[in-house]
């Protein structure tokens, strides 16, 4: 099988590159690209790529993810999060391929009281959420055999993310205020990469799936766990309501995703978030030691 992975320099893309080297995936052919190698907003560039390379599955990890900045850059956000996935879906359909599109909990408004299922009504409250939902719809409209995987609170050893930020701030600040009334599930990009790869090379029923790690916490709870596992003891973390930390983009107050469908249909496992956080921090520590 031949797989094109776009946005391969991001958190998930990095983790997919690591998984691709492992059995049973190492027998497949991978094309890892980012915008410098392949601009997925450019239809002609995509056409030329498919003329040169046979591709069975596109894993689209590329996205505009600066949630607050998106409020001031709606056109650019739309281009990357809606138009680019549509381009991928069209070229995939024309060449007998399928798309795995990574999406987000931000397609929901966050007013639920129980985990969101794939069948729950969407109602995004931000430019980021609206464009990601439009990207989902475009992929399924133009390439119906494709798969949408919604995830949330992604972190890894790569790039900028909440875990690395809280470790850095915990080591440089005596006190932090962290929001306590926004509830979700942290997701280690390494876990998501394994799920994506299993669905990429397996026989998958098309449609929408939810994947995060298991369990529930607030950003405050998440921060305490990060500091505990990183052995940060000199920083006092105070819980505050989201109203005391206003942001340009509205955040979902509750965005826990129900994973029953992906577990039952595809046999995907969802590790407990604290266990995966421990693995990530151990990897960060190893990186620091090897510098």
Verbal overview:
With 291 residues, this protein is of the alpha/beta class. The protein has a domain at 2-159 and 186-213 and 255-271: Rossmann fold. The chain is built from 9 helices and 12 strands. The strands form 4 sheets. The protein has a 6-stranded parallel β-sheet, sandwiched between helices. Helix 1 (11-20) packs across helix 6 (189-201). The longest helix has 21 residues, at 74-94. 44% of the residues are buried.
Sheet with most strands: strand arrangement: 2-1-3-4-5-10
Please state the second-level CATH architecture of the domain at 2-159 and 186-213 and 255-271: 3-Layer(aba) Sandwich
* CA(first)-CA(last) distance: 37 Å
Assembly of the depicted chains: single chain
Query: How helical, in percent, are the residues?
Result: 25-40%
Low-confidence stretches: none
Question: What is the β-strand count?
Answer: 12
* Count of alpha and pi helical runs: 9
Q: Return the average pLDDT rounded to an integer.
A: 96
Q: State the secondary-structure class.
A: alpha/beta
Q: How would a textbook summarize the main sheet? A: 6 strands, parallel
How do the strands and helices of this protein lay out in sequence?
Layout: E1 2-6, H1 11-20, E2 29-32, H2 43-52, E3 57-60, H3 74-94, E4 98-104, H4 127-142, E5 147-151, E6 154-155, H5 162-172, E7 175-179, E8 183-184, E9 187-188, H6 189-201, E10 207-210, E11 217-218, H7 219-229, E12 236-240, H8 260-266, H9 273-289
Parallel strand pairs: 1-2, 1-3, 3-4, 4-5, 5-10, 6-9, 7-12
Antiparallel strand pairs: 8-11
Helix pairs in contact: 1-6, 3-4, 5-7
């Amino acid at each position: 099988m031949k797989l094109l992975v776009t946005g391969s320099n991001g958190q998930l893309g990095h983790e997919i590159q690591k998984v691709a080297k492992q059995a049973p995936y190492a027998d497949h052919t991978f094309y890892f690209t980012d915008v410098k190698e392949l601009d997925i907003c450019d239809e002609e560039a995509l056409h030329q790529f498919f003329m040169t390379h046979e591709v069975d599955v596109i894993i689209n990890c590329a996205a505009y993810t600066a949630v607050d900045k998106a409020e001031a850059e709606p056109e650019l956000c739309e281009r990357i999060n809606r138009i680019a996935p549509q381009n991928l879906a069209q070229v995939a359909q024309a060449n007998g391929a399928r798309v795995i599109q990574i999406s987000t909990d931000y397609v929901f408004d966050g007013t639920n009281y129980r985990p969101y299922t794939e069948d729950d009504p969407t109602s995004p409250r931000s430019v980021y959420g609206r464009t990601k939902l439009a990207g989902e719809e475009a992929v399924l409209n133009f390439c119906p055999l494709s798969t949408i995987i919604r995830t949330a609170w992604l972190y890894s050893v790569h790039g900028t993310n909440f875990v690395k930020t809280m470790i850095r701030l915990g080591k440089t600040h005596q006190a932090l205020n962290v929001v306590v009334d926004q509830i979700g599930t942290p997701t280690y990009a390494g876990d998501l990469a394994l799920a994506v790869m299993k669905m990429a090379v397996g026989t998958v029923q098309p449609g929408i799936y939810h994947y995060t790690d298991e369990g529930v916490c607030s950003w405050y709870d998440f921060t305490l766990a990060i500091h505990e596992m990183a052995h940060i003891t000199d920083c006092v973390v105070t819980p505050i309501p989201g109203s005391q930390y206003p942001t340009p983009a509205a955040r979902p107050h509750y965005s826990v995703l129900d994973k029953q469908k992906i577990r039952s249909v595809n046999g995907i496992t969802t590790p407990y978030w604290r266990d995966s956080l421990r693995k990530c921090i151990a990897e960060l520590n190893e990186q620091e030691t090897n510098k």
